[in-house]
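Work package 3, deliverable 3.1, input record:
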Amino acid sequence: MSRRPHKRSMFLRMLARAAVLRKRSAHAALLAIVVAAAAATAMLNLFSDVQGKLHREFRNFGANIVVNAPEGKALTEQELNGIEAAVDGHGLAVPFAYAVTRTEHDQPIVVAGTELDLARRLNPWWSVSSWPHASGQALLGVRAARLVFPDGKPFNLRYQGRGIQLSSAGTLQTGASEDSRIYLFLSDFHQLTGLKPSVVEISAEGSQSQVTSLLQALRTAFPNLDVRPVRQIAEGEANVLGKTRSTLLASSALIVCTAALCVLATLMGWVFDRRRDFAIMKALGASDRLIALFVAGEAAVLGSAGAVLGFSAGIGIAAWIGRANFHASVSPRFELFPPVLAGCLLVTIFSTIPPLRLLRRIQPAMILRGE
Amino acid sequence: MFVRLVYESFRRQPRRKLLVAVAVTLGAAVATAMIAIATDIGDKVSRELRSLGANLVVTPEEDRLDVQIGSVNLKPAGTYLNEADLPKIKGIFWRNNITGFAPLLPVNARMPSGEVILVGTYFSKSLQFGNQQFTTGARATFPWWQVEGGWPTDDSQDVLVGRRLVSRLNVSPGSLITINGESHRVAGILETGGDEDHQIIAPLAIAQDLAGSPGAIGKIFVSALTKPEDAFARRNPDSLSPADRDRWYCSPYPQSIAYQLQEVIPHSHAEQIRRIAQNEGTVLSRINGLMLLITLAALLTSGLAVAAAMATAMFERREEVGLMKALGAGHFSLSVIFVTESVLLAMIGGVLGFGVGSLLATELGRTIFGSSIVVQPVLLPVVLGLAIGVTFAGSAVAIRRAVKSDAVQALRGEA
């Protein structure tokens, strides 16, 4: 029994000496492991983060949920506040009110009232020459500006006997129906028409299921309102995201597999190269089991070192890709370290098996003779 | 002698050669597949993004105000485009990038329960331009339109009813409604989440009858594959030099396709629908950029991995080098032998890898996007070059060290 600690210390000493003396031949093997671990870490990290990043890109398309008041009615103050409270923290809710008003020349024109600063965040694709800042200023669609108010002077709008004077802050171009409208602050709109918002456009953040759960929550809270997903955007988003996800997954699998197989090739060469050492150990009386343990120990040390180095490098690469492409950092996921480490250990230890089995079958004398 | 040395080295050490060849093959396969995917993904995602619908709209040249909110349309009838000009869209320079288009003609229609907006369009109409036959319409241009029941055919008198009209009109698929005194069958209920939910969608001919102007269309929605807009795209083509103007004209920017649409459709004004066109460009360039960076990472990974495998394989052979040196081989002839061996390996691995990679890319394209990714033959020399470069770099260090080392030490196994 007293020989066991001694034996163990010998084993550890051999491992340590091998690491120091043989460090040159281990360089290539270590490099291969680091590369594989870095690739795996970077791809796993990106894979979990890219979804969120792309979802955010799609929020630039504007609303993905629209709440309509029943036909011919407006939303009550209570409903508006309720919707805002439900959406708060999950996205952006922007109220819109519409009315057909008349110009001084009795030309009908659609006027929309909204919180313009919120609309600006909701619809970043609006091409606006200059946003209105104060009440009394209006944003004119390009068609409306060209046809109805070409001189850019202050103008009057009338609605059922009421009127308001407005000045033009800038023009709005979208290529769609917005081009024919005039956008006002809600307060001006209310002063002109006495109407309240009838539509709330919501840009809900997060994944498909998060959007759906917000949709459900709104439906149960406001059963008499019409809550609808914007199918045009939702379907395109799901489509593109799904395909990108699959492509990313396939590429990750490809890269990680290649890197792992190269580690296998490198380590097998490395172990086989040292057959002479093992032959000597065997000739000196080491059992096959001890040699296997020794090689596995070395491989484990190499694998852990490679995993640690590769993990840090991989986090760095993922962060760089996030910054370079999405202009936002990819948050490091440290919970990925155990699987990466396990993968590294598995591959390194597995790759020592074939050369060791080969060695076991051969007489040490043959190896030492160089055959 | 030289040839025999190299030949024997491959014949006698198949295991070592196999390991390295496998590494090079894998590396080349990943490089091929990733480059092929990265160069093609823009096109593929662009096609997926067409599920967002039209990104260009063609309207009559004369400016006119749309006065329409929800189910009310106060627009006075103005000028129209001509239905006969529609097939010409398939005659523009970028005709193959046009994935679909749909003409729309909104008219006010009288129903027993009040006024509604009826929009005439093509659902899935067969058109001919020259000897080219193609089918297009709302189903291709607005793929998110969801119909409960069936789609009407373009030559029928059937209509679709918007979902928000259903309760007011009290209809279901198959029931009859009266529009301007004539009876029409409701083929299905349409849900889009947009203005169409308040409208009746009918074959174009019905709307033209109601408007009393045969052959008239109000606007055309065009769905086109485009390239993300850049600063050059925003230039005015008429102010460019002839060479730049050709380059602008021959790039599939939303602007240049709009310009070409305007050329073939008389008295029209085409412009991009910014909500779709602009954001589509951003998403596309993000995904393109992501794949580019990942491809770079993949190239680096496989390069380093192959180099490591190569270095190990070379390191193993220091005894062999020692023996050759002891027999009188010079530095130069030694290097030539080993470099030839690695180049040979790289060529074999590169060609095999290119084949495997092409298969992989095609297969991935088919499973993910439903259309195969074509691997350009130009890629073969590129991948071969990369493989040779990486293998050479990987073995160079080991070769140098082996060549420089002391023959006696190497033979004693002390190197």
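The two ends of chain A are 39 Å apart (CA to CA).
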